[in-house]
Design brief:
The structure holds two protein chains of two kinds. By secondary structure, chain A is α/β, with parallel strands linked by helices. Chain A has a single domain, classed as P-loop containing nucleotide triphosphate hydrolases (Rossmann fold, 3-Layer(aba) Sandwich), CATH 3.40.50. Chain A has seven helices and ten strands. Chain A starts with a strand and ends in a 7-residue tail after the last helix. By secondary structure, chain B is an alpha/beta fold. Chain B is built from 15 helices and 21 strands. In chain B, the strands form two sheets. In chain B, strands 1, 2, 4, 6, 7, 9, 10, 12, 13, 15, 16, 18 and 20 form a 13-stranded mixed sheet that branches. In chain B, strands 3-5-8-11-14-17-19-21 form an eight-stranded parallel sheet, with helices on one face. The two termini of chain B are 40 Å apart. The chains are: A alpha/beta, B alpha/beta. At the A-B interface, helix 2 and helix 3 of A face helix 12 and helix 13 of B. Bound molecules: adenosine-5'-triphosphate and magnesium ion (MG).
Chain lengths: 247, 469
């Protein structure tokens, strides 16, 4: 098993300004695995996602992050994307004047470092949009501008589907979605999961268990993972709340 | 040609020592403008007397008017050397080697052919578009459209030219309008007859090719009743002149029910003072659409004005301005709502970086006749770093209460979160910024013909390079 280790986080301590947010976090994700992270508001879940993606505002005080065996602490955000990391944002940015299609094609070329012929790309885009039940005219819209909360989230998954990362971090992608949309998104992820894709899913809902069988569920409280278990840990949280997991 | 120096001061020395046999054709040692120079220009162009009178009258006004002080500082502009800009047979055509590297570089990256580059740089005289011009012209002639260089128009269409020339921009308008009146040279004349809808955009060919054009060129366009035209001025390569002032004039007459779209991408070399004046007079139910991109120059003062004179006349202004290091681009739009139910939309975007200053200066006026008029003004500025400045200065003066007006101004920076978002999709920081800036100006690019849109985006990429340390 150890030889397909994809992500290894080792005693990670992260601060922003003079506030410590992650306080010695450990996590290992193998290829093809799905991990779920749950935890109270403000525990540091989005911080973890941002730090993995290389957000410049967060400072790593100590600890290491290895991706595919490589220490990525020094890598820029785009370099990480090129190595196969993807973050579905909790609050995706609106970029005016840039169409979804143009953005996605530019990203695809940036990530792969290869030219992506336009016709081939359009075919691929249509396929993925159909799968996620996104109406075709969305590709002409400006990126996330005027999108509803749910539409933004779907758009994040569309990006993931196009960019085809090795590890996708989904930060509350299921928040703000209606039941049908949740279903579409998780069905979509399920299809993408074929092959050796790995997922790190940050969520507040155990609804995910209906669609994806996670390999591990972690509970993150106050900057640390305080408990790791299997799927039914998510159910126990639902019953007990986080109080009982605080150390 | 031997290598020559760029500055006019040294030009004088050269003139004296090197080319003495040419001297009698020139006014080499005279500084400043005077009557005899003006007479000489007029004679050289073999102009009718009324034009000479107009020039002389302009000269008087020019000499009597002070340098305006309400805008960017123009005190470094040395107009005493103006004589060197307008000598009829000056050796303007300096050598290709003298053209500054950054301009050559830009030509390179815009993919402009060598012959055309030399022409743009004022080195060569002719280039391939001669052919393009003649083809265009044939098609236009068939429709009864007149399209000529300004000098020829003065001779061949004297009555029309006389009726309109510098009536919309009178020499008394401001000091540089007067300067223009005195020394104008080159430019385009277009007349579109009643009801004719010209379906291909006309591009100003003369701007680059007429002698001394691109400097004090005059554009006069008359779109007669119910006719339509799209005129494209300029080009996105940097127009390079050893001289450093540009004071062109553009006069547009849009008759009843007619429509004119006037598109410009100006990109001056960075030593240039661009003091261009543009005005449109729009009659009943007529429409003027300005699409304007301002790049380059040291200082630009450019505020295209629409005078909406007839009922339901319309004006739409879409402009983008990009000010980089050492540049002050003071641009905007003016509209005079002078009849009932007239309307205007102004969309202005400006970008500043590396200490550049991009200022939106707008003037919106309504006369008491303008009942039921509508105006929507929207200005957005993007500052790419902390050294750069953007501001908006919209002035409104209404003599009528029954006017519907909307105004929005936004000044901001590229949010770090947006850059992080795009970078997380594989784009480098530069690519991310460029994409955001291109998106910011998208409302303008989508108004441009495709090849110009592409060039505008290229220009932005070029301007953005080196922004990131
Ligand atoms: N840019 C920032 N500036 C200041 N504080 C920050 C910043 N980002 C995160 N924090 C703080 O760090 C802590 C962890 O935030 P984080 O967004 O990681 O929480 P979370 O676990 O994702 O919470 P939620 O479930 O509400 O999304 C919070 O107290 C938050 O206020
Ligand atoms: Mg969060």
């Amino acid at each position: 098993m150890n030889n397909d280790l994809l992500l290894k986080i080792d005693e990670l301590k992260v601060s922003i300004g003079d506030r410590n947010i992650l306080k010695g976090l450990n996590l290992e994700i193998n290829e093809g695995e799905t991990h779920i992270i749950m935890g109270p508001n403000g525990a540091g879940k989005s911080t973890l996602g941002n730090v993995l993606m290389g957000h410049p505002e967060y400072k790593i005080d100590s600890g290491n992050i290895y991706f595919n065996g490589e220490d990525i602490n020094g890598l820029s955000v785009d370099e990480r994307a090129k190595r196969g990391l993807f973050l579905s944002f909790q609050y995706p940015e609106e970029i005016s004047g840039v169409t979804v299609e143009n953005f996605l094609r530019t990203s695809k070329m940036a990530v792969t470092g290869e030219n992506v012929p336009i016709l081939e790309f359009q075919k691929q885009l249509k396929e993925k949009m159909d799968l996620l039940q996104i109406p075709e005219e969305y590709k002409e819209r400006y990126l996330n501008v005027g999108f509803s909360g749910g539409e933004k989230k779907k758009n994040e998954i569309l990006q993931m589907a196009i960019l085809d990362p090795k590890l996708a971090i989904l930060d509350e992608t299921d928040s703000g979605l209606d039941v049908d949309a949740i279903k579409v998104i998780y069905e979509g992820i399920k299809i993408l999961k074929e092959g050796k894709k790995s997922f790190l899913v940050i969520t507040h809902y155990n609804k995910i268990l209906d669609y994806l069988a996670p390999d591990f569920v972690h509970i993150l409280v106050d900057g640390k993972i305080v408990e790791t278990g299997s799927a039914d840990l998510a159910n126990r949280i639902e019953e007990l709340g986080y109080e009982n997991f605080k150390k | 040609m031997k290598s020559r120096k760029k500055t006019y001061v040294e030009d004088i020395d050269r003139t004296i020592y090197d080319i003495s046999n040419k001297e009698r054709h020139r006014f080499a040692t005279i500084k400043g403008l005077n009557e005899s120079i003006i007479k000489e220009i007029s004679k050289e162009k073999d102009e009718p007397k009324w034009m000479l009178d107009l020039r002389l009258n302009s000269l008087e006004i020019y000499n009597s008017k002070p340098v305006p002080t309400w805008g960017p500082n123009l005190s470094e502009l040395d107009l005493d050397n103006i004589v060197h800009y307008i000598r009829p047979d000056t050796d303007m055509s300096h050598s290709w080697e003298e053209v500054p590297e950054d301009i050559k570089d830009t030509f390179e990256r815009l993919g402009i052919p060598q012959a055309e580059r030399e022409s743009l740089a004022g080195v060569g005289a002719q280039y391939d578009s001669e052919v393009v011009y003649h083809n265009t012209k044939e098609e236009l002639t068939r429709q009864g459209v007149v399209y000529l260089d300004m000098e020829t128009a003065v001779k061949e269409y004297e009555d029309i030219v006389k009726k309109y020339f510098m009536t919309l921009i009178p020499p008394s308008y401001h000091k540089y309008a007067a300067l223009h009146g005195a020394v104008w040279s080159g430019g385009s004349f277009v007349y579109v007859p009643k009801g004719v809808k010209v379906d291909i955009p006309i591009q100003s060919y003369f701007r680059l090719n007429a002698k001394g054009a691109g400097q004090f060129e005059h554009t006069l366009i008359i779109v007669d009743e119910c006719a339509e035209l799209h005129f494209i001025e300029g080009c996105s390569a940097p127009v390079y002149n050893v001289q450093n002032v540009h004071a062109g004039a553009v006069e547009l007459f849009i008759k009843k029910g007619a429509k004119l779209r006037y598109s410009t991408i100006e990109n001056w070399s960075k030593n240039m003072y661009n003091l261009n004046t543009k005005r449109a007079l729009v009659e009943e139910e007529g429409t003027i659409e300005w699409v304007s991109g301002s790049f380059g120059s040291r200082i630009s003062m450019l505020y295209p004005m629409s005078i909406l004179k007839g009922r339901r006349a319309k004006s739409e202004f879409t402009g983008v301005t990009f000010a980089g290091e050492g540049q002050i681009l003071d641009t905007g739009a003016k509209v005079l709502l002078a009849a009932p139910e007239t309307s205007c939309i102004i969309n202005s975007k400006s970008i500043s970086k590396s200490g550049g200053v991009a200022m939106y200066r707008g003037l919106l006026q309504a006369t008491k006749e303008a009942s039921g008029a509508k105006a929507a003004v929207n200005c957005e500025s993007l500052m790419l770093d902390n050294d750069s400045k953007s501001d908006t200065l919209p002035i409104m003066e209404f003599k009528n209460d029954n006017i519907d007006i909307g105004h929005e101004a936004k000044i901001g920076r590229i949010p770090d979160e947006s850059i992080f978002y795009l970078m997380s999709r594989g784009m480098s920081e530069e690519e991310a910024k460029a994409m955001i800036v291109r998106g910011f100006v998208e409302p303008i690019t989508k108004e441009l013909p495709l090849e110009y849109a592409v060039e505008l985006n290229n220009l932005i990429d070029i301007e953005l390079e080196g922004t990131i340390d």
